[in-house]
Each structure stands twice: as structure tokens, then as C-alpha cells.
Design brief:
heterotrimer; A alpha+beta (345); B mainly alpha (70); C mainly alpha (221); B: mainly alpha; 2 domains; C: 221 residues; mainly alpha
Chain lengths: 345, 70, 221
């Protein structure tokens, strides 16, 4: 039993991350509003909410749009149901900025907003507009409940953070284990270290496959394409290619001892190059590549404690599962090696 | 920085939204429904399938070892 | 150590002079691929295309040049090298030799490429940065690929493995290099573009250090 404790612990961590990650409700949010333009004069827009309570909290409902310095409230709001409402704006002022954020506040949901919900159309944009009157007052705090943040575009897929991202952590971890065993093999020449390095690399490759496939699916329905050119994605693809090449190298040399030596050298060299590319460069290049490039994801979610409470256990749990898989792989490989030695003797 | 990100995301969203309106394939209809929850299901299914594939490979390796015993 | 490196360098250069057809074949390769590109494109006025095509041609030339570094050493000569020099000196000597070869090749390649594809794109270029990109690119490609060539030379399937092992490892360097050189051609000031140069230099030095540490394990036989 004592040998199993970390396996049981990581299984429990993964299980709890799945259960809590899927059960926790998503915070109320505003996925979109149509049309996405505000015209000069009267514009009527339909706002679609998600997990919101427009009808239930109709008395306290407040709607407004702002572009940073000017704020406008609709002169008419018609609630259709809990997740739909129609708002009619009348805007004729001069403005400083073209993008409007949409805000909705009520007693149950608190304040929810959709950034850059509307683009102004035909309004007069000037450098120093007159300040507008404040039309919003007495905001409600909303009910305090455990939920995950409802980001625009991501919506429910924010839960993927608990599956997709830990698989990359697990990959980096077992690749690091593989690196350590490669170093040990080169310095000591112990065949068991070589088997361990290979097994760890194999498990790492499995988690890289998971990371690539899940990331691709996620990207398709949030960014709109199966693959986008971004330093981190390219780094992941390179890591995948490097470890495929590692196994090609192994299999192309017949002498076991030599194959281990060559693969060990390549493992160390490639790991350092990959780490440089995946971890260091996207951060250094960020100043020149803002926005979707780099890794904007974490800086946004980091602030949310609810998500973090599930995310960290998920990371440790998946790393533990990866180590478990690595151990199984290694034990089977050692058995196979011993059998081969016995047959040869 | 943050504003830029939002604007980019909003533009991406409107582009994909326009595309969805142009020809809403069955896949997009399924995946964009209910706050894109089906994407999460898809991710879970992918993870499960890859891990099962791994278990099959270990199983075959052990089977080969057992057959050698006889 | 430095004497050994110098000796190996001198030996490689002497051998190259004695067999000019081997060196000529690489230059012919560069010239032929530029000519093929010329037949396809005629003149390129688009900066990203001009830049990327140049570095892709250089990349494959670098693969060709690096894979020769160890393939030319047949077994008897390998043993001889092994007996006169430490493996650290062998790899450093080979890297420096490859870097020199690549510098000459990139220089000549840039001139031929400019003549054929037109130099209109370079009108607004930050010339100092561009020359630095050529230099760092030549040295970095040579440094990273030398150890890969040493690895591939130990296997039976030399040429195929060279590409499989080398491409993923060189890709980060290549991406930064292409970006740096494109910015230089666009005339972006050093203050905004200098980071890339430091990154290229860091990768080159890192691969030098790693090769120095790892090569003895390949040489053992």
C-alpha cells in the first residue's frame, strides 16, 4: 500500500478536477449582441445572455454601453426571457473611441460585460469630446456563488484549461525525467537509465499528442482555425517533431548500446533547444507580438481563484498519472530486456 | 494591451460568426451550441481515446512477454 | 587545445583545396537552387517572400555542407584523428570550419541572389543589421547543425536522418533568424530589432557549449 500512495493521490486529484471542473457552473455572461454596430441615431440591439437572470431580476436591471470616456444608457429595455433582452439606444454625441463595451447589472448576476460589443457606425469621432452625463447608479453586487469566469468567446470551453493545459505540464515533466536519465546513461552507461529515458520520452509523446489534438479542437471553435501561427503552438509542434525524431534515431541503429548513446546525446541537445523555444522566446518576443500571439491566456485566468483551486490539483494529478504510466512502461521494458539477455546467454 | 486583445478577439469572433451565418455546418451547429460545451466533451473524448490507445500498447507488450514464458 | 583546433582546421582547409570538386558541388548547389527560384519567380519585390526564400535556400545548403563534415572522414582517417586530437578539439575544429564555410557560402549566395532576384527590397534596409543577420545566420546554422551531422554520421541512413533530426532543432533558430532579417530589410531600428540578434547569438553559443560537452560521447568507439 505504501508504494501506491502517490498513484492513489494523483488519481484522486484528477478525478476531483474532472468532477469539480465539470460541475462548477459558469458565471453569468454575455456571449454576444446583435447587430454589433451602433448607428448614429436610434439603434435597437438584441442582447443574448448565458446563465443570466434578466427576467427574474427585472426590477433591478440596468444596461449601458461605454467606450472609456462616454457612457450611454438605452431609453428602452424590453426583457424577453432570462437570457434575452432588447435595448434601444439613441446616440448623437461626438465620441473619442469607436469601440463600445456593453454592461449589464442586476441583483442576481451583478455586473457583467461584453468587451468591444459594438463598433460605432456613422458617429462623429473627435479628439476631445464633451463628457457625457452619468446615467448609471446604485449598482447591485449580485449573488456570491462558486463559479468559473465566463470569458467572451471561450464560454464553457474555459473548462478545457483543466484538461488541455495539465497535459502540457505532464509532458514537460516526463520529458525532463527523460533528460535526467539520458544524462545518467551518458555518464554512467547504465542500461536501465537508457530504458527509463526511452519510456519517459514515450509517455511524453503521448501527452504531446493529447495536447496537440485537444488544443487543435479548442482553437477551431474559439479562434476559428484548427491551427494558428503562434510561438507557443509552433513550440509545441517542434517538441512533438523532436521526440518523433528521437524514436526514429533509436530505431535506425541496431546496436543497443550505440542507439542509447546517440539518442541520449540528441535528447539533451534537442531538449535544451526546445525549452529555449517553448518557455523563453515567446515571453521575450511578446513586446513585438501582442494580442493572440504569445500566451495571453494565463495572465487573464491567473486572477481567478475559483479556477485556480481546481487547476493546480489537476496539474499535479496529471503529472502523477504521467509518472505512473512511465513506471508501467519502464517496468515492462526492463522485463523485455532481461528476457532478451537471458535468451542470448 | 488588454484592450487590443479584446478587440482582436471580438474581430475573430465576428469573423467566425459571419462564417457561421454564411454556411452553418452541422459541426458548427453542434459545437457552438450551449456555450460551446460540446468542445469540452470533445476534449475529454480525445484524452480518453489516446489514453486507451496507450493501455492497448502496454497490454500488447505484456502479452508478448507472457507468451515468451510458455 | 587551441593548437589542436588549429591543426584540425588547417587539415580540413587543406583537404578542401586538394578536392575542389567537393567544395564546388556545394556552391553549385546554391547557385542551382537560386537559379531554379529565379526561373520560378523572376523578380521578387515582396519583402517577406524575398527574405524567406533566401533563408530556405541557405538552410538546405547548410544541411548539405554540415552533413559532409563527418561523412568525408572514412573509418581509417577517423581513427587517425582520434589518436592525434581530443574529441573536444575535433568538434570545435569542425564547427569553426563549418562556420567559415557557411560564411563564404552565405556571402556568395547573397550576392548571387541579389543579382538574380533584384535588390529593390533592400532600398530601405538597415544594412548593418542585415549584414549582422547574414553573419549570425551563417555561424548559427553551422554551429547547430555540426553536432546533428556528427550524430547522423554514426548511423547508416546519413542523409535522411540528418533532415529528420536537424529540422526540428534548427527551426526555432530559423524562425528568429527570418524575423530578424525581415525586420532588418524593412529598416526597423536596432533598438527594436536588437533582441532577436541577442537571441540568435545565445542559441549559437548554447549549441557550441552543448556540442563541446556532448561530442565526446559520440566519438567513443
Amino acid at each position: 500500500m505504501s508504494h501506491y500512495w502517490w498513484k492513489i493521490l494523483s488519481a484522486i486529484l484528477v478525478l476531483s478536477s474532472i468532477v469539480f471542473g465539470l460541475m462548477a457552473p459558469l458565471a453569468p455572461g454575455i456571449p454576444f449582441a446583435t447587430p454589433d454596430q451602433l448607428n448614429n441615431g436610434v439603434t435597437s440591439v438584441t442582447v443574448v445572455g448565458y446563465n443570466t437572470h434578466f427576467a427574474e431580476a427585472e426590477e433591478s436591471l440596468q444596461v449601458w454601453v461605454t467606450n472609456g470616456d462616454a457612457t450611454f444608457c438605452p431609453y428602452e429595455v424590453a426583457v424577453v426571457d432570462d437570457t434575452h433582452l432588447r435595448a434601444t439606444f439613441s446616440i448623437t454625441e461626438e465620441l473619442a473611441d469607436a469601440f463600445f463595451d456593453l454592461y449589464i447589472n442586476n441583483a442576481i448576476d451583478g455586473t457583467r460585460h461584453l468587451p468591444s460589443a459594438f463598433l460605432q457606425n456613422g458617429l462623429e469621432v473627435v479628439d476631445n469630446p464633451r463628457p457625457t452625463e452619468k446615467c448609471v447608479s446604485d449598482l447591485e453586487a449580485g449573488l456570491d456563488a462558486y463559479n468559473f469566469p465566463n470569458q467572451p468567446i471561450l464560454n464553457e470551453t474555459i473548462r478545457n484549461l483543466l484538461f488541455h493545459v495539465p497535459s502540457w505540464f505532464a509532458m514537460i515533466f516526463v520529458m525532463f525525467v527523460s533528460l535526467l536519465f539520458s544524462i545518467q546513461y551518458l555518464s554512467k552507461g547504465d542500461f536501465k537509465a537508457d530504458i527509463a529515458a526511452t519510456s519517459a520520452a514515450k509517455v511524453g509523446l503521448i501527452f504531446a499528442t493529447i495536447g496537440l489534438a485537444t488544443g487543435s479542437l479548442w482553437a477551431r471553435f474559439t479562434w476559428g482555425a484548427w491551427w494558428v501561427s503562434d510561438p507557443r503552438l509552433n513550440g509545441a509542434a517542434i517538441a512533438f517533431l523532436i521526440y518523433l525524431a528521437y524514436f526514429v534515431l533509436r530505431s535506425s541503429v541496431n546496436d543497443e548500446e550505440k542507439a542509447g548513446r546517440l539518442a541520449g546525446v540528441y535528447n539533451i541537445f534537442a531538449f535544451v533547444m526546445m525549452l529555449l523555444f517553448v518557455m523563453v522566446l515567446p515571453r521575450m518576443s511578446e513586446s513585438l507580438h501582442p494580442g493572440v500571439g504569445g500566451n495571453p491566456a494565463f495572465s487573464q485566468y491567473d486572477l481567478d481563484d475559483n479556477l485556480r483551486m481546481v487547476f493546480y490539483p489537476a496539474v499535479f494529478g496529471w503529472i502523477g498519472m504521467a509518472m505512473w504510466m512511465y513506471q508501467l512502461q519502464r517496468r515492462a521494458s526492463v522485463l523485455a530486456y532481461n528476457r532478451l539477455m537471458k535468451l542470448n546467454a | 494591451m488588454k484592450k487590443f486583445l479584446y478587440i482582436t478577439l471580438a474581430m475573430l469572433a465576428s469573423v467566425s460568426g459571419v462564417m457561421a451565418q454564411a454556411e452553418p455546418t452541422w459541426l458548427e451547429n453542434t459545437m457552438y451550441a450551449s456555450g460551446k460545451i460540446n468542445v469540452v466533451i470533445g476534449v475529454g473524448v480525445i484524452m480518453f481515446l489516446v489514453l486507451v490507445g496507450y493501455m492497448v500498447s502496454i497490454d500488447r507488450k505484456l502479452k508478448k512477454l507472457e507468451e515468451g514464458d510458455k | 587545445m587551441w593548437n589542436e583546433v588549429r591543426a584540425i582546421l588547417a587539415k580540413d582547409i587543406r583537404m578542401e583545396w586538394r578536392q575542389p570538386h567537393a567544395l564546388g558541388s556545394i556552391f553549385l548547389y546554391v547557385f542551382a537552387s537560386i537559379f531554379v527560384a529565379y526561373m520560378g519567380f523572376k523578380r521578387i519585390v515582396d519583402v517577406p517572400t524575398w527574405n524567406a526564400l533566401f533563408w530556405i535556400i541557405v538552410l538546405f545548403a547548410a544541411f548539405n555542407a554540415a552533413s559532409r563534415a563527418f561523412a568525408v572522414e572514412h573509418h581509417g582517417r577517423k581513427l587517425y584523428l582520434y589518436s592525434i586530437a581530443r574529441p573536444e578539439s575535433v568538434i570545435i575544429g569542425k564547427m569553426v570550419y563549418n562556420a567559415l564555410l557557411m560564411l563564404v557560402m552565405v556571402g556568395a549566395g547573397a550576392i548571387i541572389y541579389g543579382v538574380m532576384m533584384g535588390t529593390d527590397v533592400l532600398r530601405e534596409a538597415h544594412m548593418l543589421s542585415f549584414v549582422l543577420a547574414l553573419t549570425l545566420g551563417a555561424i548559427g546554422l553551422a554551429f547547430v547543425l555540426t553536432l546533428i551531422a556528427a550524430l547522423a554520421a554514426q548511423t547508416d541512413n546519413n542523409i535522411g536522418l540528418m533532415a529528420i533530426l536537424g529540422l526540428p532543432v534548427i527551426l526555432p533558430f530559423l524562425l528568429i533568424l527570418i524575423r530578424f532579417s525581415k525586420n532588418a530589410i524593412d529598416g526597423i531600428a536596432w533598438s527594436a530589432n536588437g533582441t532577436y540578434a541577442w537571441q540568435l547569438l545565445a542559441i549559437a553559443i548554447l549549441s557550441l557549449g552543448l556540442s563541446y560537452i556532448l561530442f565526446p560521447y559520440l566519438w567513443r568507439e
